């Protein structure tokens, strides 16, 4: 699974997700801080160790973001695309069960 992860870097002010955008990745914050903004209000601050995106391994359809996600500081993120994660989970059923049971999203962006 590790070979499917990408390392993404964001600068302060970068928008990682916009309201209404399709959520096609699961993101793990390695360093830095991000804010989640809904209706012009900050609803969450994400930092090292947080996970955001969509629980798409539980949903048959691609979700759309209900919030903007903006970098507050320089950020490093590990991200895995929806299709690659689903491919791995379908192939390794025992891992899929553990993954679905144990991974908790810090912030679910799905509408």
UniProtKB/TrEMBL annotation:
Residues 1-89 form the Cyclic nucleotide-binding domain. SUPFAM superfamilies: cAMP-binding domain-like. SMART domains: cNMP. One of its GO terms (biological process) is regulation of membrane potential. One of its GO terms (cellular component) is voltage-gated potassium channel complex. One of its GO terms (molecular function) is voltage-gated potassium channel activity. This is Cyclic nucleotide-binding domain-containing protein.
């Amino acid at each position: 699974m590790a070979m499917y992860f990408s390392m993404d870097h964001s600068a302060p002010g970068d928008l990682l997700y916009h309201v209404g955008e399709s959520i096609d990745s699961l993101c793990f914050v390695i360093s830095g801080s991000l804010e989640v903004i809904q209706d012009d209000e900050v609803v969450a601050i994400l930092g090292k160790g947080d996970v955001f995106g969509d629980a798409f391994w539980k949903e048959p359809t691609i979700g759309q973001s209900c919030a903007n996600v903006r970098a507050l500081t320089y950020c490093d993120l590990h991200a895995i695309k929806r299709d690659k994660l689903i491919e791995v989970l379908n192939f390794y059923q025992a891992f899929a069960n553990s993954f679905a049971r144990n991974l908790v999203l810090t912030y679910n962006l799905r509408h």
